[in-house]
Amino acid sequence: MEDKKVYGVRCKACGKELYPAHALCPECGGREFEPIEIRGEGVVLTYTDVYALPLDYALRYLRLAIVELESGLRATGQLLDDDPKIGKRVRVTVGVVRERGEEKIYGLQFVPV
Amino acid sequence: MGNIDELEALLRPPAMEMPPYPPKVITLASGERMVVRQIDRDEVPILLKAIAPLLWVERDFYDIVAARLFGELLAYKRYRVKDEYCLVGLIDGVLAGIVNGRLVDEEVGMSYHTITIRRGLRVGSHMFAAKMEYHMEILGQKEVLIVAESPIGFRRWMIEYPLEKKFEVPHELGGVPSWTLTRETYFKAKPRLVSGRRPVPPELLEKARTITLPAEETVKAQVLGEKGEGT
Amino acid sequence: MREVAIIGAGMTKFGRSEIGLIELMSEASIRALDDASLGDLRVDAVYVPNMGAARLNRQTAIASALVDRLNLFPAMAEAVENGPASGASAVKNGFQAIASGMADLVLVTGGERMRAVNNLEATDFVASLSHPQAEYIYGVTLPALAGMFTRLYMERYGVTARHLALVAVKNHANALDNPYAHIQQRITLEGILTAPEAVVNNPYIADPLRLYDCCPVSDGAASLVLASREIAEKLGRPVVRIAGIGQATDTHAVHERPDPTELTAVRLAAQKAFGMAGITPQDIDVAELHDAFTILEIAESEEAGFFRKGEGHVAVEEGVTSRTGTLPINPSGGLKAKGHPVGATGVAQLVELTWQLRGEAGERQVEGAKSAFACNFGGFGNNVVATVLRRED
After folding, report:
1. Cβ–Cβ of B160/A58 closer than 8 Å?
2. Domain A39-112 fold
3. What is the distance between the alpha carbons of residues B109 and B68, in angstroms, rounded to a whole number?
């Protein structure tokens, strides 16, 4: 089965976690990383309802957010919450975030806890 | 109507009672006030004059909208379309936008056209909203059938309201599959799309009594986005 | 290092163009070259900032095309792509070429023809500068990043919709006196904020940002002729010197910044530019900031050092940044109303400031301006170029 999870990386040398992945660790310059799944809970740092959408969306608007996870990592994704607030607790899920013709793209979707 | 002969009476479609559209005034982004009011048949010729130069403007499908609107308004004046109406937006008496449509029957409306003369102030958006307001709140209809001829129209109506597909019904404008505005969608969208105040202060109404046309060059410059274009 | 001056400036009207990209850029170039009155001197290097010709206009290697159209052979030439900061980046390249002695006379012409495609495509094109896996795939666009930034900024610093609207009203008013501006439409606080109709007039684009908080999509080109100071002094006009340039980068994904309300690259670029010029923000008489969104004018004015963090909006409210205030910001109308043909923008900011420093800005002239600052903001703050210009009397 296709892996639909979203991954960041952990530096093998110093343990620093990064999302998205980089080629060099900003902490120690390490070059070797292991994947870490972006999962769990976090809080909404900020969000927007964007009406100026790119291609591939036949919607009126899309709700996007930056979430700070318990691990301290932050991620941008879609916010599936009818009552969004800064500081609100959300959980990471993975779903279809964009469809390009037949192709379905999976990514992070935050839902209220 | 005056006296008409028997043949002419046969050529004219039967007419329904249509309560008139009560005029309203909208404050635009510029602070200018636009009066939206219904016109009667006598005012069609001046509108045709405003539309004629746009027949050859390809940008944003002005040509096709102008051509069809020209025909529809002429048909209204000469009693060759059933239950048509036309609303105009006037800023200090100067024409800013035109919308028109007609009634299919008591419950269903058919939206025709929206043409913006003064661009960049969401005049088109306000005028389209006034037209929907007429169908839903004054005429008390159940739905309005709508199509868009330009991508701008598609974004403004289909996406912004948003309209529902009713593709099984061909629209009068070219037989294109219809979209529909229901009462539910209208009243949900109303707070963010329909605005304006009534009654219109008498001095504003007086200014809006006669339609003045902007200079043809001004219209073309605005329509082509050379001047005063909005965000 | 040799000193470098701006000896020619010109631009096209921003807005919607019916002519092609190269034609547009050559029009701006000819205006700048005419303004410079070079006589027998030949341009020996050409830099052409542009972001989207390959995608929007299906044309590549546009620097060679421009040189050909202008018959500038055998000048060195290259296109410079650095997102929305391409313009000031290319000016920096020109500066380096002259400062190093590699060139004496440089033409920098930026241009973009974005209205060759529809708005959706244009929005998508600009969005492609965001992080492809961590941002773009979610439907992130520049307005979306700006919207999230604004919400946090409002929450933290007490910026309100009114402050943002005041920036828009000011810049639209300034653009009325700029014949090159894309949008020449006065707007009022009533019409975009306080009237009941304002919600319709000024709908959300990326909540809390509304339509009049966002710059339009524009075509346009802007051009500068740069020369060594020795050449500039022989021309017998006021010398506008490029006194300082600073550039800095920041994380690609906005969420990776330790504090997403800080535009660190703006701060660092400005510090470098002021350091090189040997002056401070307090010495600046006029500034052009990259207000692709109204909030950015406020945030950049703080990061650049004109106001303390969280106080930029107060300055707007007090009229400090209006044309008659003590630090006029965006007398040209800014990106907000002058328009934002991305590759041209950084050059156009410096064209405006050159005119301001020479006293040639007409109705929008800031009286007695001697020192000027520009901020050209790439990505969502991941690549920023700051420039300080000074009039040498």
Report:
1. no
2. OB fold (Dihydrolipoamide Acetyltransferase, E2P) (2.40.50)
3. 18
